[in-house]
TrEMBL record:
Residues 267-343, 349-421 form the ACT domain. Pathway: Amino-acid biosynthesis; L-threonine biosynthesis; L-threonine from L-aspartate: step 1/5; Amino-acid biosynthesis; L-methionine biosynthesis via de novo pathway; L-homoserine from L-aspartate: step 1/3; Amino-acid biosynthesis; L-lysine biosynthesis via DAP pathway; (S)-tetrahydrodipicolinate from L-aspartate: step 1/4. Pfam families: AA_kinase, ACT, ACT_9. It comes from the Bacteria. Substrate binds at T47, E74. SUPFAM superfamilies: ACT-like (SSF55021), Carbamate kinase-like (SSF53633). Keywords: Amino-acid biosynthesis, ATP-binding, Diaminopimelate biosynthesis, Kinase, Lysine biosynthesis, Nucleotide-binding, Transferase. It catalyses: L-aspartate + ATP = 4-phospho-L-aspartate + ADP. GO terms for cellular component: cytosol. This is Aspartokinase. It comes from Homoserinimonas aerilata. GO terms for biological process: diaminopimelate biosynthetic process; homoserine biosynthetic process; lysine biosynthetic process via diaminopimelate; threonine biosynthetic process.
Amino acid sequence: MALIVQKFGGSSVADAASITRVAERIAETHRAGNEVVVVVSAMGDTTDELLDLAQAVSENPSGRELDMLLTSGERISMALLAMAIRNLGVEARSYTGSQAGMVTDEKHGSARIVEVSPNRVRAALDAGAVAIVAGFQGFNRGTGDITTLGRGGSDTTAVALAAALGADVCEIYTDVDGIFTADPRVVPSARKIDRVTSEEMLELAAAGAKVLYIRAVEYARRHGVTIHVRSSFSRNEGTLVVNPKEGETVEEPIITGIAADLSEDKITVVGVPDVPGTAARLFTIVANAGANIDMIVQNTSTSDTGVADISFTLPTSQAKSVLDALEARRADIGFESVQYDDQIGKIALVGAGMRTNTGVSAKFFTALSDAGINIEMISTSEIRISVVTRADIVNEAVRVIHHAFDLDGESEAVVYGGTGR
Ligand code: ASP
Ligand code: MG
């Protein structure tokens, strides 16, 4: 007997028929003698639709009320799923995030989990029931208010419950068969990866791979939770995200996969005085504006000008406040101007084997240059190479690199559902 956490995303519970199908799968796991905890997302695109509704009544809705609104999506799917499972003769009980003991800090819209006390979930399992928990939500002890964990937060709920309950595995069900060498919607010949380390998965998620959310992977890595990403539409084995122990050797492919990200913009600060301390001051302004910056590039100043240009990338949603903050301090820092570019895309190639293999960057840049793709920024880690290009050629760049590194699989990847929204 195992304790299994199963998380079903919005596209797996998009309508009544899908909920029934998922219920059968859960009942089957339960009948096989396992203890089953289920985490659900809101049905289909419910969360986006609720956000649109909020926008329609208020340009700047309060975080508290937004969280009240959005958490209702998961409440619908958890109750329906519990009903569907009971209908199959298996006892099931649904719990909101707060009932399941998901305690968070008080930051509405992107709360962090500070404690997980799933007493009622444990009691439901002890009583032989399947426990269903609403994903993406928690509550703060101080304010007594309901919080959400940020978009895609149900993955984190599932991993956190798996850690707190000491589950054997955390299964994340989605609309593709696992983690692929590239987004199968962009590269139909992408190959499913059987096993990936959480270190590589973190790089892929940070670089824009949407199949797993970065905070869930971080949590799993910290707490040693094994994640199994698989399809709720097929019986195929998916991808295991593992945490090799210190000293344990794993056979590492040179390249794991490619991720792309169109959700970032580029800001260039032009004519920055090339003296010690300017970068520190600039990025303090940026940090105080609340931005998570990613790539940074500074060009060298020529000796006769004594000024440099500094470019960095950041999420589109944070660009406005950073631009305003920089503009307000222009005279004080002494730079010439700020340029803003919202038509960039990022592509990252990830693989733990890069650490010990030469020639990866040469092949990567050659593939892009053969396709006539111009590179605007470059950054690397031990196991990743990332570049910025024009947004409209990102998909082509992904395909070109995928091909250059022979990542193609034998058959076309199947995308079972979802609108990709
Ligand atoms: N329903 C939430 C969202 O769409 C949480 C989740 O799906 O994980 O972001
Ligand atoms: Mg969703």
